[in-house]
Amino acid sequence: MIEIRERFEVPASPDAVWDVLSDPDAVVGCVPGAKIDKVADDGTIDASVLVKFGPTRVTFRVQAKLDLDEAARRGTISAQGKDTIGGTRMRSTAQFGVTPGPGGSGSAVAIDGNVEVSGRLASLIEGGASLVVKRMSGEFAERLAARCAVEQR
Amino acid sequence: MKVSDALANAFVKEGVTTVFGLMGNGNMYWWHALEQNHDVAIYETRHEGTALTMAEGWARASGQVGVCAVTQGPGLTQLATSLTVASRAKVPIVVFAGETALSDHDSVQKYDQQKFVDATEAGFVPIWKASEAEDAVRTAFYRARVESRPIVLNAPMDVQAENYEGDVDEYEPSMTLLPGYQRVLPDPDRLADAVALITESKKPVIVVGQGAQKAGAGDAVIKLADRIGALLATTLPMKGWLGDHEYHVGVSGLYATKTAIDLFAESDVVIGVGASLNHYTIEHGYIFPNARYVQIDLQPSIVMGSGKRADHYLRGDARLTVEAIDQQLESKGVTSSGFRTAEVRGMLAEYDPDPREFPIDPGTVDPRQAASILDERLSSEVGVIHGTGHCSGITAFFMRKPRDLTWAINTFGCIGQAVPTAIGAAVARPGKAMAVVDGDAGTIMHASELDTAARLGVKLLIAVFNDEALGAEYQKFVSKKMAVGSSAIPTPDLGAVARAFGCRGKQCTTLDEVKAGVDEFMAGDGPMLLDIRVSRSVVSVPYSRLWFGEDV
């Protein structure tokens, strides 16, 4: 089980940041290597994610679901999938929330979650997987922050 | 004549010329009898396990059945790891093992030897009575050859001491029972299916394993590869084989270069020749994400490391099958440039095994540069054996010269095997220099065999990549941000240790000292150890991938 914990601030209002975070296209667009194939009527998202474990590239077909609490500006994204070669599964859950930034301006975003990789790939990537996830979640936070800042303008 | 004499006679009749062993109660009379025959050289070692490993290295290098001799009980149990290694490596060896007298139930060395041998995955041939002695030796050698694995010949002391009644001059060796290797061709329909797949593919990679070399398939593989524009790659144990071909990309698997991995991702067909294509070689299938598979091997069927079978599995002799594929392609007029482009040639020529920069700790050298110096200064006639551990991930990437002999020792994943393997191989190749590169922990584990190397006078360079640590564990602790202390063990000057045992020895803390040391080894005779102090700051490419998730 690999933990995800990201904290970052965005120079945009909580409402503007929430607009981005509650939009599946925008969120998935910020995940490195991810693209949406289909969004079903019930909100289930079919996506593919290309992950680079060292030089090995693995594409996961993922089903994700976004649960939103509009009033509290909090949400949960849960995803599970398996890779296209067929030997590895992943499962991930993450909670995110937007609050007014410290000092009264901008917003603060908190993301907490975990990722589980099981199957054949697990032995191949050994300890490196946690660093890969850490790098990806860091990049996700950066992209999200940049996107929110753009939306603000 | 005693049974022990008859047993020794049978070993000689089996063509045995070289034995590695450690003497004890259970083998000393057999040993004494064998020693009377001046065509047999018996090399005494300082540990039973290393005797077995030397016999393994000797057998692999000579292509003959290796012989190891141990005494009863504790003499046998010292073989636990090395016998398991040899079983997994499928090397034919006969182990002469004494046993306490069948009638003696109170001996302190009494032990259920068969149970132990079973656990090492080796075969077991017991001698229950005197009249069976010669048959048992013949059976042991027959099974070692046919099953291609170690067989323990179990000889109780009281049986050895009995009189032997047979006519030992009439002993018929096991070779007379063997019909000889039969080269078989695969089913013609399966062959046609495989040819059809290869014909419609555009980016082939041929991965060769030990079976390809055993079958002498090298030339046939190159001819096929040139016809269809294939890249050539090897399994890790076959590292360096066919290495002077310009489209050879090295090892497939975790030890693959980044360039090779990028090219493998484009491949649409992988042809495995005498290779099991296990999960190490094909990284569970992930290293060839877009490929279908043709696999040639002698087993009835194989499940590859991806958990699947090859699209077309051809059961047959590697050489004959590759030749048959090539002939069918030729008759259909199939040729393809495949991967053979100026761009790919450029990628392979410009490849830098590891362009990263690391700060180098004072008093140490960059192990990558030390490995390059070894590779450059040891001519291609010098066989090189890579050990197991963090340092092997560095030497495997930076020692790429095609050589008469290149072995990567990784069976059973244990340290300590490389030096005794190299001593055995050196004995099998008289007049030819050998080098072994291993870590400090692996070398020190059997440092007592420096005495054996000195006594035997083998021209063996023992290049120790000394990071004063259990390097693999050290790097894992670093990646997990844990305290490294318990994995870092200071070592004495191993050059001085080697000199004390009668070898030549030097400690190297600069690259110039490494150069001078290698040159001194080549210029002189006998074994020499270089204690090359290497910087722990340099993380090998495989470990950077595995433990740090780096795209290198």
Summarize this structure as a short list of keywords or feature phrases:
heterodimer; A: 153 residues; alpha+beta; 4 helices; 7 strands; 30% helix; B: 552 residues; alpha/beta; six-stranded parallel β-sheet; 24 helices; globular
What's the topology here?
The complex is a heterodimer of chains A (153) and B (552).
Chain A: E1 2-10, H1 14-21, H2 24-30, E2 34-39, E3 45-53, E4 56-69, E5 74-83, E6 88-100, E7 107-119, H3 120-125, H4 128-152
Antiparallel strand pairs in A: 1-7, 2-3, 3-4, 4-5, 5-6, 6-7
Chain B: H1 3-13, E1 18-21, H2 28-35, E2 41-44, H3 48-62, E3 66-70, H4 74-77, H5 80-88, E4 93-99, H6 113-119, E5 123-126, H7 133-147, E6 150-156, H8 157-161, H9 188-200, E7 204-208, H10 210-214, H11 218-228, E8 231-234, E9 248-251, H12 258-264, E10 269-273, H13 279-282, E11 292-297, E12 312-315, H14 318-331, H15 342-350, H16 367-377, E13 383-386, H17 392-398, E14 406-408, H18 418-428, E15 434-439, H19 440-445, H20 449-456, E16 460-466, H21 471-479, H22 494-500, E17 504-508, H23 511-523, E18 528-533, H24 541-548
Parallel strand pairs in B: 1-2, 1-3, 3-4, 4-6, 5-6, 7-8, 7-10, 8-9, 10-11, 11-12, 13-14, 13-15, 15-16, 16-18, 17-18
Q: Can you describe this structure?
A:
The complex is a heterodimer of chains A (153) and B (552). By secondary structure, chain A is an alpha+beta fold. Chain A has helices spanning 14-21, 24-30, 120-125, 128-152; strands spanning 2-10, 34-39, 45-53, 56-69, 74-83, 88-100, 107-119. Chain A is built from 4 helices and 7 strands, in the order βααββββββαα. Chain A has a 7-stranded antiparallel sheet with strand order 1-7-6-5-4-3-2. In chain A, β6 (88-100) and β7 (107-119) form a beta hairpin. Chain B is α/β, with parallel strands linked by helices and 552 residues long. In chain B, β17 (504-508), α23 and β18 (528-533) form a beta-alpha-beta unit. Chains A and B meet through β4, α3 and α4 of A and α12 and α24 of B.
